[in-house]
Amino acid sequence: MSKLGNLGARLHRGEISYDFVGKRKIWYGVSILITITAILGLAVRGLNMGIEFKGGAVFTTPTKMSTSVAQAETYAKDASGHEAIVQKLGNGSLRIQIAGIDTGESDRIKQELAKDLNLNPEKLAADLVGPSWGEQIANKAWEGLGIFMVLVVIYLAIAFEWRMAVAALVALIHDITITTGIYALVGFEVTPGTVIGLLTILGYSLYDTVVVFDSLKEQTKDITKQTRFTYSDIANQSINGTLVRSINTTVVALLPVAGLLFIGGGFLGAGTLNDISLSLFVGLAAGAYSSIFIATPLVADLKEREPAMKALTKRVLAKRAQAAVEENLAADRAEDGDSDDTAPAVVGPRNQPASRGRGRGRPSGKRR
């Protein structure tokens, strides 16, 4: 953990960094591939809508039933003429869902099921959902999701700017598409709990995105007054500075959700937990990915198209090119200086100092 903390501190100070924004085309490609797979899953398999959305009946048996799930499915199909979904709950009881039946049929189906299961009809609990009520629930869910999106875009446009609002909206659509596509591929039932899970993970996704956007907004104040960094450079610094915090919050949120999904829904047989836990698990992971790899790089793409940002990029690149030229010249001078120091001395005639004994023994010209 201490190593992770040191890594986060070094990322925050800018001592080390990973070029998320520079490699954004890779992340875009990965996201497009996953999104296409999710859309194909939705188109081919479709969503397994619960009876809350399409109407039907839910029959719950007493505890400690000896009847297997496969036998109960056969009994329900023979009694209703429709496919049934049977789940064995943690207390040993069976939850039998039959969609597409009306209130008048439910009484007859209840009598036949009780007979096949060797139960008193009064001990077989029945919950009925009318088709019109289920349709209203579905419409309300879509309306709530649409209102949520509109409010998010308005808030981000006011608090930050419209480019960040657009990037956040794209990231949210990305998260919803992937989550619903996973539901279609896995075949889990879509219930009101699923809708609650979707709205919850959108909040988590926005939290990570807004943290990065806030850091980016602070660091890009008066950005055009300097020539060291482009907008993409600062966007990359913002991602790296908040990277470890985003990972920590996502992992901490995923651990209890994984417990609900794999332990509660898988080992303990609490199938109703799957509805909300799968949407939370997939959505949290997708939200963390989109906050880092989609939202901020997309903001950088949109901002770099502004005339002021284009001019800034030209100045920054020109300064970097000039600095590179000066560095090369300095290196060449250093090499030339080293060659002068090691050059051999020049050999040639030189003036010898006058000897003090010169002229000794010669006649002075004086007469004795």
Q: What is the architecture of the largest domain at the second tier of CATH? A: Up-down Bundle
Average pLDDT number: 79
Question: How is the biggest beta sheet arranged?
Answer: 4 strands, antiparallel
Strand content: 5-15%
Low-confidence stretches: 339-368
**Cα distance spanning the termini:** 109 Å
Membrane topology: Multi-pass membrane protein
Function: Part of the Sec protein translocase complex. Interacts with the SecYEG preprotein conducting channel. SecDF uses the proton motive force (PMF) to complete protein translocation after the ATP-dependent function of SecA.
Subunit structure: Forms a complex with SecD. Part of the essential Sec protein translocation apparatus which comprises SecA, SecYEG and auxiliary proteins SecDF. Other proteins may also be involved.
Protein name: Protein-export membrane protein SecF
Describe the structure.
This protein has 368 residues and is of the alpha+beta class. It has 2 domains: 2-49 and 133-314, Multidrug efflux transporter AcrB transmembrane domain (Multidrug efflux transporter AcrB transmembrane fold), CATH 1.20.1640; 56-129, Alpha-Beta Plaits (2-Layer Sandwich). Helix content is 68%, strand content 7%. It has helices at 2-13, 24-44, 51-54, 69-80, 103-116, 131-159, 162-186, 192-219, 231-267, 272-303, 307-341, and strands at 48-49, 56-60, 84-88, 94-99, 125-129, 189-190. It has a 4-stranded antiparallel beta sheet. It has a two-stranded parallel sheet with strand order 1-6. Strand 3 and strand 4 form a beta hairpin. The longest helix is centred in the last third of the chain and has 37 residues, at 231-267. The chain is elongated. The N and C termini lie far apart (109 Å). Residues 357-368 have a biased composition (Basic residues). This is Protein-export membrane protein SecF. Keywords: Cell membrane, Membrane, Protein transport, Translocation, Transmembrane, Transmembrane helix, Transport. It is found in: Cell membrane. Residues 328-368 are annotated as: Disordered.
